[in-house]
Give the backbone structure.
Amino acid sequence: MDAPRNIDSGGRRSLPVGMRIDSWRASDGWALRCFDWPAPAGGAARGSLLFQSGRGDFIEKYLQAIGHWHDRGWAVTGFDWRGQGGSGRFLADPAVGHAESFDRWVEDLDGFVAAWLAGTPGPHVLVGHSMGGHLLLRLLAERHPQIDAAVLLAPMLGYAAGPLPGWAVRWIAGAACRLGLAGRAAWTERLGDGDGPSHRQRNLTHDLAQYADELWWRDRHPELALGAPSWGWLRAGAESMAALAAPGTLEGVATPTLILATPTDRLVDARAIARAAARMPDAELRWFPAAAHELLRERDDIRRAALGMIDAFLAEHAR
């Protein structure tokens, strides 16, 4: 294991000392790759924070943000979603990210959170990005865990499909699945080389160094990398988002929730995020007009502003 360092000055490409990479068995025996980083010794423990990233992500992409919370006294944990990162694959082809339903992910999250709540000191905080934010919100809406506060970063509550309405994406994905294409990639993903702008990089972050970090991890640990979503994944995501949009679902989320998003997101629908926040009884929505999708992997000014808002929110609601 590489020696740790100040994460702001280059430690994004090495696991920090004290962070444990392990596995956790879901209720059906599936092994999920997880991490645990206990609160720093010698200081006042702040509480326990569980972070879940988005589709196609893996633990190492978010070492910088995880390090920020750890430096502030939080014990931080989380896991790679089933079917991506180090938690196995649904299909033999690792270039395709597939799912038949998002329900299994909610079950995995529910089991992991229950064990985490029982075995760690409070206050307890959930933080989720994109698909992770979507699944955390489903957990809060459907299972009502005893969480002190939640933070959703660019949560996937609708697809950003350009001129197409959200229902059209669901219809097209459903039609592709009926034609037997459920396991096929919905598009070809082009990563770029990290040295210049690419379509994917512009959608995710304006920071070329942050984007290059992801490619560095993918190059050295190809087992963690995942390609484009399948048509089945798109259909499953649309069905899951429709379930969250049903009347009465979000109105029952009592957990204080901070939502950070960008109105120009090219991957998730900002209008759906605004509608969801308006329905939640204790939600605060803050916009980052200059950001791309990955707020915690953006330029320093954007990333630090987002982390500062999260710190302030947790200081008020997770004591």
